Amino acid sequence: MIESLLIANRGEIARRIIRTAKRLGIRAIAVHSEADAGLPFVTEADEAVNVGPANPAQSYRNVEAILAAAKSTGAQAIHPGYGFLSENADFARTVEASGLIWVGPGADAITAMGDKINARNLMAAAGVPVAPGTTDPAADLDAAVAAAAEIGYPVMVKAAAGGGGMGMGVANDEAALRTEYDKVRGFAERMFGDGSVLIERYFPRVRHVEVQILGLADGRVVALGERECSVQRRNQKLVEESPSPAVSPELRSRFLAAAVRAGEAVGYRNAGTVECLLVPRQRDFEGGGPGTEEFFFLEMNTRLQVEHPVTELVYGVDLVEEQLRVAAGLAPTFDPAALAPRGHAIELRINAEDPKRFLPGPGAITTWNEPTGSGVRVDSGYVVGNMVTPFYDSLMAKLIVSGATREEAVERAKAAVAQFEIAGPKNNLPFFAELLENAEFLSGDYDTGIVSRMR
């Protein structure tokens, strides 16, 4: 097993990786910016290195500083967490060229799946369903208009190199397409350094369901069930649950098989997620009950996901431990042939944001009392006295609850939300209290428009 691990990340995910590393007897090394010096992950690590100012480009995305920290501390491996450099193929190559172990998928897989158009084409060739859309970037506005006319409106205008729900727009007609194309292309050039744009069919009412995969050290790819991620604001997730209330055993079998094919198509190793759109039959929204007609590949996230804890609770695995074992060339702790979901888990992302408009609300934490009890887990990045700064993502903690049934998990979530006390920064706990009483959410028959209908 790996003996020393540098975590190239911050906040709750760094703290969570440190927890598993320590349980396994691995020396955990943290890197931090000047702004994060007082956060729990820094003090809980066996060693910590200041890698620069608050600006992520000068700290958490500073490859030279992170590699220097690894060298000075004698780190054997680097875990990138999520965000920052986690899906940067050049960083992965540099880490391995430096003689370090990269705890993640190979750089070639990251590259292959990092471009949405290339990923779509690879998946189609592997027999994974993809939505109608362009097979090459729309070179200019005229090409985008022609593609949309062939695909049929409404269409999604999407940055080929985008991620995290950014760089997307919807066009219901040509006039809107002309506006959205220029907007998305400009945003993509500024944010990703790549203005390539793809056009694909937009489905107004869909569910967002993803499959957790793990590429094992022996070359096999296995799937650890699906997660429902349809509670979103601005295309960014707020709630995840597993199993999905929309997925039948028959559909789960097809979902998981497609996800495994996706991983095998790129020789995937380590943890990753295959994200899909689940398109309901029209009658599902006319009182016909749950059920689905088709699903389409959306993208592959070549890293550990924010929402991985719901899979851990339902499948009884520690995904960070499995990542470390794959990176070390070891067999998994579980029997892939015996994987099956047990019970139900729900994750709520506790953000420092206004619960009505979801605008960031950083500030000093004056009260922080986490809920406890049966089936309650909190992965947090802060404690009382810490400052939530505007430099990074607004995620403060993840509240994860589990139960024997979805109904029990929901009841535990209600109690935990009521028990969670945060003062100082704005937070979205009031939104979750409202959601957990919402009839549409409670029925399990909801889609990605649920938050906009609530607001």
Automatic annotation (TrEMBL):
Cited PROSITE patterns: ATP_GRASP, BC, CPSASE_1, CPSASE_2
Keywords: ATP-binding, Biotin, Ligase, Nucleotide-binding
GO molecular function: ATP binding; biotin carboxylase activity; metal ion binding
EC number(s) given by UniProt: 6.3.4.14
SMART domains: Biotin_carb_C
Enzyme class, spelled out: ligase
Name of this chain's protein: biotin carboxylase
